[in-house]
Structures are given as structure tokens and as C-alpha cells.
Amino acid sequence: MSNTSVAKKNPVGSFFSAVGNVFKDIGVIFVQGDWRTKISYLIMGFGQIMRGQFLRGGMYLSIEVLFIWFMTSFGSKYFSKLGTLGTIETYKKNRKTVYGDHSFLILLFGLLALFFIIFLLFCWYKNIKDNQKEELILKSGKKLPGSKADFLSLFDSNFDKTLLALPVTGVFAFTVLPIVFMICVAFTNYDATHQAPTKLFTWVGFENFKNMFSFGTGGFGRTFGGVLLWTLVWALLATFIDYFLGIAVAILINKKGIKFKKFWRTCLVMTIAVPQFVSLLYVSKLFDSAGIINGTLMKWGIIDSAIPFWTDPLLAKVTIVVVNIWIGIPYLMLMATGLLMNIPADLYESASIDGATPWQMFRHITMPYMLFVTGPYLLTSYTGNLNNFNVIYLLTGGAPKSMSYTGGAGATDLLVTWLYKMTINDTDYKMAAVIGIMVFIVTAVISLSVYRMLPSVKDEEGFQ
Amino acid sequence: MARESSMKRKRAVSNFFSYLLLIIIVIIWLFPFFGIVLGSFRSYNPAVEYGGIVDYVIPKHFSLDNYRFCLGDETNYKRWYMNTVTIAFFVSLLQTIVVLCVSYALSRMRFNGRTLLMKFWLILGMFPGFLTMICLYFLLKQVGLTQAGAVPGLILVSVASSGMGYYICKGYFDTIPKALDEAARIDGASRARVFFTMTIPMSKPIIIYQALVAFMAPWNDYVFASYMAFGHDKSYNVAVSMYRWMNTGDYQGYFTRFCAGGVLIAIPVTLLFMFLQKYYVEGVTGGAVKG
Fold it and tell me: I want to staple B102 with a disulfide (CB 3.0 to 4.6 A). Which of A128, B121, B143, B166 is the partner?
């Protein structure tokens, strides 16, 4: 594996040669460029403006101005403290509050400043390359596109920039920045006893990860192992039981001779249509010790005392999987109905002429086809179930509590619900961040390793 | 002849069992909904009947007390309802626009860093969504979009990162022949013109699917909604407030009121869904095949 990649292209090597090229470019362009280009090294966009490209140059210039304003007004203040996350605590002196540092803001705005610096360097390099390109165009005797042409290109050849500008910024501000922030938090001691601004938090290295995998007293090792195991098992059960039963129901409804097909489907689809929090909360109370199921069974004299659907750890897990069948089958039924119609009917005809039983046809025609086509779906559904917050939280909230677990985890908690509890109930942000990173690692490892084994990825032409 | 009639009988028997199975399935699947509707007609007034969890389905006395309670001024139910409708409407509108833009750019245009962006977003998607919760709360708090401003805050959070959910829509765009685009561009149409006058009108099913899915999601949003609006009753959405009714208000017998509130929510959402079911099925099936 490693041999082939080296022979093809060493990614590390090509990265460094790319970086080398960038530095070479910066030097060469400076030496060869005219005075406008040279000034552009200091004042971004100068060259473009001098050559009449006001829109382009103005943009570069405004980015630089914005950067300087950001850094001088508050960016540098936070950025310089990023190494310690603050040293002066806020305290009260003679009933007056003396404000010190705020670790949270230092980390947040420090990271923002860091990203801004990277962005500026990128723009700066682009600005230089731009200058070079313009010089070359002018030298070859052509005219540069004016501001109007530049502007119009935003709706034509550069339409991708117009379309993506806002979404990419949104993802950056609301996903990338917070995720990087939380990854950093995993390496600090930010928790209930270190709440800014009265108490500061600081870097602690791999302390939290050690704690997560330690099996001593107070360590999270046992709990993490237990929760992770249940998360993996749950996702497996939830995905595959629903999958097979869903296909079975679809086949049942599709069967020749069954009437009112649309009616049966519509009844099942109700579970998708009704908001889950209404139906799931109701179902959770159905299985309650005073709920309808227990009550009816007791009335009929089948049982003497209530079945502990939600309080017995094992039974709670089974109940969740069963209720999830109720939720999952309609989706699978809808999907399978569409796909089953794509299987060529002559396959079944020739099989039945050869005397195949329905079961044989199912095993050798229907299932291989379905597995081939829905392979990627199964993978995304599995990773989706790893993070299936709603079902677990609305049904049990992670209960029943387990004595052998630390960190407030219950027997039916998934990693994500545990993360949620850790954030909300314990405000143990550092451990929540560690769990979040673990969820990422588990999801990434499973996705990448399974994706390569999928039949539809290995052998795309298989069924065509 | 004899063989044929035995075949017929066999088929009849198998059909009989199929129908039996289907009827059982339908009863199980619909039971909770009947339960909710029936529960909503059970009074919570202790003089009439108990409003908590009971072990029977059909109420002993028919009453509209729960609906009166929900629609009256005793609680903020109407407010919560309007919050959720507002969030759902704007999220649906804006998210669809964002997804369409991203999908078109990724499906039709080839620019530097395109595959890098797609890979990066794929990796980002593997982080659990509410890892970002604390940080987002703080960010929004700086600009006053939490607690009292939680409704616009929640819209912003849902819309901002929605570009990452482009897969199904891009998959649909990929199936529209590129030759159409090229023909229009040879005739002098700009990319933007192609996008607005050709691609969008041709993508009605996927637009409806996107809008429908985006509209349904906020009704179930508990995590972010409860965190952003923390402690500010007027900014709750229905999921947060009714979860509270169910789990902390349970002992006061809020169960039947929950049922009534649930019915009021479920009816419009379910009708909308049933009405647009066709598009939903198309999206689900298409998305499953392309992964």
C-alpha cells in the first residue's frame, strides 16, 4: 500500500515542494515585477488599482484594511494570550469588580485571529500572483478586463464564487470555528470549576485523554468502553433489523394479489409525517410502568407486576431497538418499494421456470441486488444511527442510571447523548470535547474502512 | 384442472395470511396516533378525570379541556407554536436557497479546490453536530441572539451550515444532462442565467423535497432550541416546551395536554407531508441509490 503511494506521488513530498514553489514565486515575482507590483507587497491591491482594475484592487485593499482594524482593535490582544489563555482572574476589590482575562474569549477570538492571519496570507499571495498575471497580459499587448467585466464574470465564469461565498463563510463561522474551538477545549481544563471570567482555564496537554482511558477510580475508561460498545451494537441492530424488515414489508405490500397497496403504505408513512418528538414521547409513555401496555397486561392477569421496560438496563435496550423498528420500517419500505421495481422482472420469471422457491428468489435475486444498490445507504444509515440522538433521548434520556458508570452516563446512553449530558448537566466541557473527538474518530474509521469494501465502490459495473 | 384449483387455493391462503399480517402491522403502526388523539379528549380536570398517564386508551368522558388549555392564555403554547412555524418557514426557505447554490456550483462548475472543499465538508460532517453547541451559544450571545433572540438565532444556526447538506440535491443536478447547459451557453447565456432560467425550473421535485425536509426538521429540534432559549419561556419551540410538559410536568398530569398539543402540531405537518409525499419518496429513493 505504502509502496504504491510512494511510487505514484508522495503526498508529504509534494506538499513541501508546493510550499517551496510558493516561496520561490514570492521572491521571483518581487525581483522581476515592476514598481506597482513591488508596492503591492506592502499595500495589497495597489498594482491592480494603478492598472485600472478598481474592483479587484479595492477588494484586496479592503481585506487588508479590515485585517489591520481587526488586529489593532482587539484581535492582537487576544491572540497574544493564546499561549496561556489568560493569567489575571476577575476578582472583587472593595465591592468593585476588577475585570481580568477571559479564557473563553481569548481562545475564541485568538483562534479567529489565527484564521484571519492565514486568510490574509492567502489573499496576499493571490494578490501577488494576480499582479504577475496582469503584467504578463499587459506585456503581451492585450488589454486587462475592466471593473465591469470583472463584476459580470461573477455571474458567469466566476459564478461559483458568488454561489459559494456565503455558504462557505457560514460553514466556517458556524461549524469550522466552533469545532476547532472544541478540539482545543479537549486539551484544556475547562469545566464547572474553571468557568471564565472568575476562574480561568488553561492548557493541560493530553490530561483529559489519559483520564478518558484510565480504568482507575474516577477514570472514564470503563464508562467509555461500555458506552462505545452499546453505541456500536445499537447502530448495527438499528440499521440491519430495520433494513431487512423494511424490505420484507415492502415485498409483502408489493405482492401480487394484494389490494389497496397505497392505503397500506400511507398508514406506515404516518410515522414519518408526524413529528418524532410527539410520537416518540407518547410511545415512551406507552411502555411506562403505569402506561397502557403494563396496565392492560396486568388487567388481563398476564403479569402481576409491571414489566420494567425502561428501568431494567437490558430490557431498556431491547425496547429501544423494538421501538426503532417502528420508526425505521416506513423509511426502508418507501425506499425498497422504489428499488424493487427496478429489478428486471424476467430474472424472476426465468427463476420460477427453473423451479426456484420464493425464498430462493429472495436470497439469490432480491437481496444481492438490494445490497449492491443500497450499500452506501447502509453505511450512512449506520453512521447516522451512531449519532441518533432523538430516539435515545426522547425514549429514555439515557436511563436507567448505571452504578458502574461515571460521568452521569446511563445504560442506554450513546456517545452523543452522553456528550449532551456532559455539556448540559455536568458542564464538564473538557470531557465533552474529548467524547466529541472520539465520536469523530469512530465515525471516520468506520466510514473509511467500510466504504472501500462496498461492492458498489469496488465493482461499479456489477449490476449494470 | 385439479392442479390449477390447488394453486388457486394456495394463493388464496397465502393472500389471507398476507392480509392478516398487514392488518396487524397497520394496527401496531397506527395505535400510537389513535392513542394520542383519544388521549387529547380526556379531561385533565381532577373532578372529571385524571390527566396523567393511565392504563386505558378510550377516555371515560369526552372533553375539550386540553384544547381549551392549549389555545387559551394560561400558557405560552400559541407563542411556542408561532416560534416553531416562524423557524420552520425561514429555515425551509433559506436552507433550500443555500443548498441549491452549493449544489449547482459543485455539480456544474469546475474550480480550484472543488474536490478539496467536498472532502473537507465530508470530514467536518463526521463531527457530532452539537459538539459546537457551547461555542455557538457564546458566539450568538455576543450579538444578542440567545434567550430573547433565540428564534432568529436558531434560524441562523440552522441555515449557516446547511451548505454541507448538498448531497441529494447535487446528485439530482448531476442527472440533468450537461449538454443542455452547454447549448444555452453557446447561445450566449451566462452561468447565472442558466442556473435561474433552466436548472431551477427543471428541479422542482428536488426543491420541494429540500424545502419539505427542512420544514419538518425544526419541529423536532430539541437540543439546540433548548440550549439557545435556556430559561426564556417565550422563546421555546414546541419540542422544548412540550418535552418539559411530558417529563417534568408529568406528575401534575400534563399528559393529556401534551396529547392535545401534539395533535395540533401533527395535523398541519402531517397533511403537508402527505400532500407532498410523492416528492419525498423520490428524494429518499434517489438519495439512497447515490449514497
Answer: B166
Indicate the pLDDT class of residue B249, thresholds 50, 70 and 90.
Answer: low
Shortest Cα–Cα distance, B73 to chain A (Å): 22
Say if A254 is an interface residue toward chain B (CB within 8 Å): no
Q: Which of residues 190-249 of A touch B (CB under 8 A)?
A: 249
Residues A174-189: pLDDT tens digits?
A: 999 999 999 999 999 8
Cell of A297: 397486561
- The rounded percent of chain A whose pLDDT value lies above 70 is 96
C-alpha cell of residue B66? 386540553
CA distance A344 to A248: 18
* Residue with the larger pLDDT of the pair A157 and B82: B82
Residues in chain A: 464
pTM, full prediction:
0.87
Which H helix or E strand runs over B5? helix B2-40
Q: Residues A390-408: pLDDT tens digits?
A: 889 888 887 788 777 877 7
What per-residue confidence (pLDDT) applies to B91? Answer: 95
Does any CB of chain A come closer than 8 Å to the CB of residue B183? no
Kindly calculate the radius of gyration of chain B based on its CA atoms and give it in whole angstroms: 25
Q: How far apart are CA A274 and CA B266, in angstroms?
A: 5
CB contact under 8 A, A270 and B33: yes
Distance (Å, whole) CA A409 – CA A231? 13
CA distance A298 to A288: 13
Cell of A70: 481587526
Q: Do B36 and A394 touch (CB under 8 A)?
A: no
On whether any CB of chain A is under 8 Å from the CB of B15, the answer is yes
Residue B153 has a CB neighbour count (10 Å cut-off) of 26
Contact residues, chain B, for A338 at CB < 8 Å: 281, 284-285
Which residues from A are below 8 Å from B28, CB to CB?
Answer: 326
| Grid cell listed for A149 | 467585466
Q: Which residues of chain B make contact with A380, given a CB cutoff of 8 A? A: 291
pLDDT tens digits for range B5-59: 777 888 888 888 889 999 999 999 999 999 899 988 988 887 778 877 777 888 8
**Residue A3's pLDDT band (cuts 50, 70, 90):** very low
A98, containing H or E segment: strand A96-98
Rg over alpha carbons for chain A, rounded to the nearest Å, is 30
Nearest Cβ partner for A104 among B133, B138, B163: B138
Q: Is A110 on the interface with B (CB under 8 A)?
A: no
DSSP string, A188-220: B--STTS-TTTS---B-TTHHHHHHT--STT-S
**Dihedral sign computed on CA atoms, order A271, A274, A277, A282:** negative
Q: Which residues of A14-45 are buried (b: 16+ CB within 10 A; e: fewer)?
A: eeeeeeeeeeeeeeebeeebeebbeebbeebb
CA distance A365 to A345: 11
**Does ipTM exceed 0.90?**
no
